Amino acid sequence: MTTTHILGYPRVGEKRELKFALEQYWNGESDVKALQGVASEIRKNNWALQQDNQLSFATAGDFAWYDHVLGTSLLLGHVPKRHKNGFPDLDTLFRIGRGQSQASCGCSGEAASDMTKWFNTNYHYIVPEFSADDKFELSWTQLFDEINEAQKQGHKVKPVLLGPLSYLYLGKEVEEGFDRLTLLPRLLAAYQGIFAKLEKLNVEWVQIDEPILSLELDAKWLSSFKLAYQVIRSDVKVLLTTYFDSVVDALPTITELAIDGLHVDLASAPEQLSEVVEALPENWVLSAGAINGRNVWRANLVEKRESLTAAKEKLGERLWIGTSCSLLHSPVDLELETGLSAETQSWFAFAKQKVAEVNWLAKALDGDKQAIEYCEQYSQPIIKRQQSTSVNKASVQKRLANLTPADAKRSANYAERSHHQKEVIKLPLLPTTTIGSFPQTSEVRKTRAAFKRGELTQGQYREIIQGFIQDTVERQQAIGLDVLVHGEAERNDMVEYFAENLAGFQTTQFGWVQSYGSRCVKPAIVVADIEREQAITVDWTQYAQSLTDKPMKGMLTGPVTILCWTFPREDISREAITNQLAFALQDEVADLQSAGINIIQIDEPAIREGLPLKSRDHQEYLNWAVNAFKVSAASAKPETQIHTHMCYSEFNEIIDSVAALDADVITIETSRSNMELLNAFEEFNYPNEIGPGVYDIHSPNVPSVEWIEQLIEKAATRIPVERLWVNPDCGLKTRNWQETEQSLKNLVEATHRLRAKLA
Ligand code: GLN
Ligand code: ZN
Fold first, then answer.
1. Residue 733 near ligand 1, beta carbon < 6 Å
2. Among 65, 522, 552, 707, which residue's Cβ finds the most Cβ atoms within 10 Å?
3. How big is the chain by its Cα radius of gyration, in Å?
4. Which of 631, 665, 699 represents a domain boundary (last residue)?
5. Domain contains 692
6. Is 698 a residue of the active site?
7. Domain end point (choices 608, 637, 665)
8. Rounded-to-integer distance, Cα 384 and Cα 264, Å
């Protein structure tokens, strides 16, 4: 019988029970015991599910109170110095993740550790902080307690552990002149301690995640693996798990390791299978990550079985079947969805359904007749979908097939456009503007929710939202901004809003995926060819423009960002999806322009995070990503000014692609880095206009006039003042009106002072 397992299961609970329990605990509304109770109930259900589906193991150690990298830090007794305070407990963990509240300590509060994206997913982890004198000691028993807990419930447990090299690699040095790899020997001693405990717990197999093996590691890191795995060798068998990309490059290193099996991700890199099978040492198992752990689609089990037959013949019982990565990145249970059509429902599988897929696929590979039949019948909807004309729309495909370089070209170059724009849009030196959203007050959110529940008619809703727009426009006028926005009161989220208003997307009720801690996101799903059936933003924007003589900036979310923050189709490429979006947005740009909107912003905050894991794949991605943005903007006439916005602080590696977007104006996040990131723009000689953020909207602090003034002056030493804009870092939706108005008044005042100086 084929051995089956999953790499991990969502820990948030079917209806985000962990989220609510955590937040209650943090708000002081419940105690540790109540929180522990919710968590053990979730684990119990997760393990029972794996047992019900006859998986060979119940995976333990995949639970995390905040994120699993932070969990590993605690397991290793590796707490940032500023958070050390005796024996680490759950509150220590939360302090590292969330920062220490000033009220709790009566002090200024110690800062949280940094958080960053987990590879190319939308999950985030707390970055381990390393100093030269760091020590590691087992002090936190969560892993062992949970193994115990699962064993008591009658499960055969396979614990999961983040590997020592990935743990080190994913962290950062917080001291100058020291290399965190030098901590490896000390770290390995702690891992030896972990293994000794696992032996005592009679663990047969442990899953060690080393996802960094799918990156392009330099020799220094790669060559550390061999010794490391020798050092931690014990009687517990090791399944080394890799995911998110191919590990073919690293195979010479991997096959030398003192381990017992390898797991590879066949969802993101199916092509690696034959090479991996070929290279697999004789006594190892190969765990085939066949069921995609990070998307929502039902598997075509017939096809999966075929693709694994040769490996099965060669490896026999040494072939295991599993999910490609942890199911952490999938929504939990499709059965909870009540709003999907039967057809759409039959296209999906969430975490719970994927566990069943693992089992059926393994049985079918074993030649079980009933399972083979089941797989055939189960795969029908997803096979039928390939021919569906409601999925594959002739009109969209025709437009896509005819896409040529001309579709991505504006009719004039920047110099000429800028000339036209100056005539049509009369703007002062250092024009002031904002990034789009204004405070989303509870009234704003309540209005949208009431409309969604059907408690407001379309007419009533429109009137209330127009009221918010009017208020927002009046406030901006009073503040004295030059380019206004309508404020985005009708949008819950910059991607979801477009997904709801474009044909080709499906939204869900409970399709939550953990982002970090108690934060979850509910991405829409691209289910069909994307079409814009009617204008989306024109009515609101036109209304806003009717209230003022100042230019009103239209506000769109760019094609790459929509792609990155939704679940993509798997039957067509990411590039094709993005181009479909680009055409839809191109039409929206044309309609906004016809409605008299002269400035249109196309936000692309996600363009950088969409980069593939391997740098050799970057250029290809950037080429089509940039092209799609340009297709979106290409319907703009020379006198229509296209803005884009990106909120991050690392442009160096993609600056030429950012320039290639050829937006007339780009607004970026700079205030926290004290304008340092402008170096990239200066060195590159960025040709168009730039609005470096001068107000950090992530903090409630109101920046002073002087502070903003010196930031603009600093920016002006790098970018010619004729091409500088003045604006906040990002949208203001999370701020309140009071701090927003005061900050923007200061921003306008600082600009006035500089204009006077320069006059
Ligand atoms: N226009 C969006 C806003 O202001 C941009 C948000 C973003 O960059 N993440 O909210
Ligand atoms: Zn932003």
1. yes
2. 552
3. 27
4. 665
5. no
6. yes
7. 665
8. 29
